[in-house]
Amino acid sequence: MVFYLKHTCHAALLALGLLAGSHALAGGPPPKYPVADIPGSLRENAHAVVRLSDETLLVKSAGRTIETVRRAITILDEAGAHHAQELVYYDQLSSVSYLRGSAYAADGRLLRTLKASEIGDISLSDGFSLASDGRGRVADLRQPVYPYTVEFEYEVNSTNTLFYSTWQPQAQEQLSVEQATFRVLTPTELPLRYQERDLPAGTAAARTSVSAALQRYEWQVRNLAAVEQEPDGPPVGETTPVVFTAPTQFEVQGHVGTFTTWQALGLWNYQLNAGRDELPPAVQEKIRALVQGETDERARIRKVYEWLQANTRYISVQLGIGGWQTYPATSVAATGYGDCKALTNYCQALLKTAGITGYSALVRANKEDIRTEFPSQQFNHVVLCVPLQKSAKPDTVWLECTNQTNPFGYMSSFTGNRHALLVTPQGGRMVRTPQYTAADNRRERLADVYLDAQGSATATIRTRRSGLEQDDYEGMAGSRNLADQKKALAEHLPLANFSISKLSYTQDRRAAVPVITETLGLTLPGWASVSGRRAFVTPNLLSRWHALPATVGERRTPIWLENAFSYADTVRIHVPAGFKPENLPAPVQLSTAFGTYSSQVQAQADGTLLYVRRLLMPRTRFPRTEYPAYQDFRRRISAADKAQIVLLKTDA
Amino acid sequence: MTTALLRPLALLAVLAGSGATTALAQTDPIKFGKPEMKDFEAKNFVADSTAEAVVLCDYGRSRFEYIEGDFRVVFDRITRIKILKKSGYDWATVKVPLYHSAGREEKLVNLRGYTYNLVNNQIAKEKFDDAGVFKEEANSNVTLRKFTLPNVREGAVIEYAYTVMSDFTFNFQDWQFQESIPVRWSEYRTSMPTYFDYKIMMQGYVPLAVSEHGEGSMQATVRQSGGYTGGGFDTQRVSGSASTAVIPVKTHRWAAKDVPAFRTEPFMTSVRDYVSRIDFELAGVHWEGQPYRAVADTWDKINNDLLADENFGMQLKRGGFLKEQLTPLLAKITDPAARVAAVHDLVRKSVKYNGRDLYYSTASLRKAYDQHRGNAADVNLLLIAALREAGFQANPVLLSTRDHGLVNPDLMPLLSRFNYVVAHVSLPEGKEMLLDATEELVPCGMLPTRCLNSIGRLIMPAAADSRWISLAPQQRLTEYQQIHLTLDDKGGYTGKIHSEHGGYAGLAQRDLLREKGEKKFVEEMLHGREGWNVSKYQFAQRDALDKPLSFDYEMSMTAGDAQAGLLYLRPLQHFGNSKNPFVHENRQFPVDFGCPVDETLMMTLTLPAGYEVEELPKAAAVTLPDNGGRFMYQVQPAANGTLQLVSRLSLSRAVYSAEEYANLREFYRLVVAKQAEQIVLKKKS
């Protein structure tokens, strides 16, 4: 599920390099970027080394910027070869003035210079949009022998000043940086706004006046060693040096605004989209009839939302300013489709007809939350927020308008647990989307396993998932056909040998958080391993948790878990006649800062064995220093989850 | 459907005259703009309850028009689809590919569409507004027109119709009967002048309900253009004239009924090899009063054309520039195989494969060499040229990669079936080798996995010598592990392991090692091997690509709590197969591994002092029918308190039929179960 507002994907931080213009001289040009010059510390654990990166953002006016990039990067091995390919993004609001490149051998000898005819121009269809104007200039300087160095140089002329550059010379893992510089030149009356993060000590902005009319800001980093993505850690891009920049004033296709506060950003958005909520009389009548007689506010909203879901669908069209400005409501009324802006605007208009006020709310969906302390265009999606007016205590309904099966009021992991900017006539207001806690995100599993004397078994398993735990199953349960459901499940079941005899899903979208219940029947040939007189069984049928890999060296990043959750498993094992337990695993009980775990097996009076496992993980963020303790917690859970029951043949 | 009807690729026998002229006289299966009430009744979709949408009717017609002295192909299509679920909404967004070349392009005309919804028991009709047609480049010869239908809801029926006008008679519209949703009726009719000789290729696993063939005629208006004669004051206007010509045509009508949804399965080559469809290739043209002119032709002609082609054969003659590099390189090597390997190595390190699979060079070998970059043909034609320069008899082999689809030698010769070229080299004593230089890690004499697709066509200097050549790999996917485990009395153990990844396993592991580096490679191996501690490791023969990659390591695993008197252990748990790769119960299509498989495990287990064996797994031997494969497992006590365990698995073929799937799945079930069996040790009393 992706429903993005258009976002200038600053085409992966592209790079540049000085071009050897004089290589025709007798004796050849002096060598550039010899690989021998790279300090050993930068080669360690790196597939590529940024030798030199030089990026300049020149603000010509509130409505025009020029971004100039030069970058040289040494490719150490095949896994770094993608750095030798360049893609420069452009669209209706921007153009690429030039893209040039050269390749150098390890000793710094010029291998070749890109010819204009080798630079491609491709459509960057995002795969889900019906239409989008994104395009890319592309170049490929990959070489057959490692190591080698490539230089790229390009310039992008933009009339879309909603976005300024984000400078992040080390956006990926296993990439080191020898030297990188970023500067912004801006008219004095258009001061730069910026936010720094994870910069090495002593690399704050140097600000100088070039002239009375022109200001210069500059950052430089040197010798950044390669880093690696760590398990249960933040994405690499969240932990390496970065400078975010944003305009104070901007102008896009005649739409002028300021970004100094969230209030102002919201106001601009409001004005850009104002007056596009007119509905045809026929639709208005339908909505009035739909809610007539319904006095409960929430019920009225639900009716309108469900009508929206039944009568519209998501189709993305992103062209020019259309990346930020909605199609009018009349267009959705006519075609029954729209993108996130259009459908949210339409829903807002429908609710207005029903006498209810909603506000569009900008969010950054499916990624890390926005940086609330830095007002700027960081959003990629929009939802509708409806504060209840008649409710006794403050209450808000959140509506995802692009999904035809989304439960009413549910934000899912896509847009839940984060900030949103409410767009109101008075301007923007920062609020929080619904929080989903361990009590919401539950998985309860109840299994009966019938074992036979040969070690084969049949099992019936009922798994109830709620809240964020059910998100991944929503698409599958709601709409995929049985053959696809079986196929998807089969590929993920952690069992050595099995056949699915039964599978069905039921959904409860009316609960406080949505619930999906999976009923699964399995035949498990050789589930128990039988050796002579003994049979071995792992009672934890489907919920085994793996330990984390051993760490080498010190943990670099904090622990980031996806979401809080709680699991409960109960497995009843029906032991075949003629067997009795020889050995049951000892009960385990763990209580830590990260969460609590317990598991035990008990022989019941009726001869069955009852396995009960509980895991509660109420928090998601822990400091780096806690990692060894977390690893230990996981190791102990993993060991307990693998524990076996030994059954012994009693007859013969 | 019974499997007896399953038909792999087959040339359709076209029976002229058998169906008389009825083929196109049939009434149309669908009338555009006239939805049927039955398509809105739930009871008619009970059988499709799990599908997201159903194609009710897909109806295409291709015919010729004669305009201004030229034939063009007119393709009309009407498609009607029932949307059953919200997840089926994507079927309302349509892409029409249009071919263009050399300034000419196919044209999309008369695009119409409707969405029908049932409102108050009446069918409400919404018209598609063709302002919403977007254009997108798919590749340098194909643009897509994309559009979406309005007001699509659950239960809606959508319908669209369009016509594609094409000047490209060689690019006759193919037809696909099968989709990823069920198809109630799919029909294709063609009518082509007898001047055009099309070869018709049918493939797939779905039986046809209709296959009719006949003859008829079409009318063509031949205009004599008007103009003026004379000049000055004596100019006279001459009116144009038109005469009607009757042109004989061949007609065909094919239809499939109730076609099941197409599903991909693991271990498949290209979907194109399995889906039911019909393809057309222009073999020749035969104008009245003129001799037959072959267009796509005999192998001899293809051979000669290729050899004369600027982007193929001619390039092979221009390898002279390599001499400078080759002469010193080969000066001291006398063994032919070693000379071949040296040339292969040189080419591999000179040109980086850019990921594009083509059988012809797009520029010149010299250019690819200078740019250090090129497509598959640039690399491998350069290899051939270099081998020739080095004095070998080297020739190109055309093939189709696994993604591109299977080549059937029984079908008519067609260059478009191929998308790749490798080198064939003849060595003394009648030996021969296939070579590919596109991959850094593929040794001389081995083909990359993408090339393992049945057969290729060897293109020899004399057309008569050209022939089909098997691409079946010499190498297997070979895994060998020699393990020494020493147990302690708590169930923990230390181990010394020597493993060798050979053939295609060597390629895969070297690939991983290159991507991850040694440290991460080892870390990744530890996933799922909890409690393991690897103290030492060493890779060998990393660069000796023609030898297995060897990986030696020492590990230890401490056990949790001691068991009183009894130790249970599953010695192959982390060394064998832990999951049956065939998770699905049924199989429609063949299983294609690409190459045969061999896995050998030899383990020596040293028991802790004071313990003896209580239970040992029984020996087992399992075979697949028709020498398809075997599995052998044995564990027995040996000297000095040790146990010897041997497990060998081999799959002797690269491809197994769908009928053999159940056996294959059961075979793996037994392997997994056997390798999971436990040994029980008892403290000596």
Which spans of chain B of ≥5 residues are poorly predicted at pLDDT below 50? Answer: 1-23
Helical region count of chain B?
Answer: 8
The CATH class designation of the largest domain in chain B is: Mainly Beta
What is the overall pLDDT average of chain B? Answer: 88
As a whole number of angstroms, the C-alpha radius of gyration of chain A is 29 Å
Cross-sheet strand order for the largest sheet of chain A: 5-4-9-2-1-11-14-13
Question: How many β strands of chain B by DSSP?
Answer: 39
Distance between the termini of chain A: 59 Å
Percent of residues of chain B in helical segments? Answer: 10-25%
User: Low-confidence stretches of chain A at least 5 residues in length (pLDDT < 50)?
Assistant: 1-26
Keywords (chain B): Signal
Domain DUF3857 (chain B): 75-204
Signal peptide (chain B): 1-25
Pfam families (chain B): DUF3857 (PF12969), Transglut_core (PF01841)
Summarize the structure.
In chain A, 15% of the residues lie in helices and 38% in strands.
Polypeptide structure, described:
The complex is a heterodimer of chains A (652) and B (685). Chain A has three domains: 213 residues, Immunoglobulin-like (Sandwich), CATH 2.60.40; 171 residues, Roll (C8orf32 fold); 208 residues, Jelly Rolls. Chain A has ten helices and 39 strands. Chain A has an eight-stranded mixed beta sheet. In chain A, helix 4 crosses helix 6 and helix 5 crosses helix 6. Chain A is globular. Chain B is mainly beta and 685 residues long. Chain B is built from eight helices and 39 strands. The two termini of chain B are 64 Å apart. The relative contact order of chain B is 0.08. At the A-B interface, helix 9, strand 30 and helix 10 of A face strand 8, strand 9, helix 4, helix 7 and helix 8 of B.
